[in-house]
Amino acid sequence: MNWKNSSNKVGVIGAGAFGTAIANLLAHNTEVLLYTRDPEKAEQMQETGIFVGQQLAPNIAVTNALEDVAARCKTIFLLIPSHGLEELLSQLSPILNVDHMLIHGIKGLYIIPSPDAHPHTDHLQLTRKEVYTMSERMLQHTNIKQVGYIGGPNLAGELAQGLLAGIVVASTSSGVRETGKQLLASPQLTVDTHPDILGIELCGVLKNILAIGTGYLAGLGQGENARALLMSKGLIDMMQIGVAMGAHKQTFLTIAGVGDLIATCNSNLSRNYSIGYQLAQGQSLEEIQVKGQLMAEGVKTVMIIYSLARAYAMHLPVVEMVYKLLFESISAEEGIQQLMRLKSDT
Predict the structure, then answer these.
(1) Is 4 considered catalytic here?
(2) Per-run averaged pLDDT (10 residues), the chain, 346 residues
(3) Which domain range does residue 34 map to?
(4) Which of 4, 145, 181, 207 is the catalytic position?
């Protein structure tokens, strides 16, 4: 299909830094309808052509009406924080049909806790049937059949600057993979495709745990060697829990796996990295959150994966270390000792 001549716009829901950057990339190939739920922001963006420091491409229109997006766009990119997905799906579900295609970049896990679950404590008890990826939740909550996920080393700030990056379009549907690849193709972006959507999505989720750990090491003044040690052993954790959840081991060696891991774990722009850094500076998790910082997705992910690992009777040393840093308030010295004692089952 010649996307530039298509009369069908592509929708982007989420006008944050990442959503806006992706909208500009899509605008190389098609007309884009960018959604923000704030009417004032929508008007400002339409009038000035600038948002979150980014100049919008001329063929990007802005709306604050989800009905407009559903009516005019068969392919919709969802690029919002994970905590907003449930509300969004409740609004989207009545206006989507089986012809719609959803491609998202939401990094998180959704849980339906068991009756005896107690979040933030060692008593959280979960099994795989209570844990859903964002893609699984979309299929469960709507009548759509075509879902894709985009992952990879693609920090929003660098995308906005036009710097080189990579994206993996993952889906069990070859049609979704090919559509995503054609829409995102640009000189600054390597676009790969992959059928293991579960594995690619877990790559984006699990690396946030490791980013907390590398931020912690940076906050202690440790160097590249220590962070490389944590990342390499943490990658083994990612593979082991990923395979247990149903993903393929080799998926974690793609640019969405090891590539995104390297980018996020070395970026002080990452909220997960920042959490770890501040913990190393002597602040508690509660103090960090009181300062107004939203809980980074990796914090919730640590709780979920720590619980799942116990359900699988699986030893994940890096996950366990980060869990203890967050919820058992171990000292910096104990944290370092934990790191140096890490032994992974390969």
Answers:
(1) no
(2) 54 95 96 93 86 90 95 97 93 96 96 56 76 96 96 93 96 98 96 98 97 94 93 96 98 97 90 91 82 70 95 94 89 77 62
(3) 3-119+126-195
(4) 207
